[in-house]
Amino acid sequence: MKVLILLALVAAAAAAKLGRLEDPELIKEPPPPPKPYNFGFEVRDDLTTNYQNRAEVSDDAGRVKGSYSYVLPDGFVYTITYEDNRDGEGLKAVVRKEPSGIDVIIPEPKPRKKPVQLL
Hints:
It is a single chain. With 119 residues, the protein is α+β, with helices and mostly antiparallel strands. The protein contains one helix and five strands, in the order αβββββ. The chain has a five-stranded antiparallel beta sheet, with no helix packed on it. The longest helix has 19 residues, at 2-20. The protein is flat, with a radius of gyration of 30 Å.
């Protein structure tokens, strides 16, 4: 019985000591500073009336500004403009809805094939 108690105390002491060890894999370096970037794209497909775009830019302080637009089946173009100044206020966005003047093509679904009946 005394041996079990002694082993339990040794195990507890060893576990407590292990918890205080500093594992080099757990020590993390601070993340690198943000790298500036910019990107954008545009889609203009007259056959399907798929119109959309996006542009975004970031500076070396991590501030981000951008916008994206698309035309929905209701014929309006929606533009979302956003920015994050990294001032603690988070992402701010503004949405605009404007008539596009586009007659949107809404594709008709293909008819389903009848299932083959096995005899």
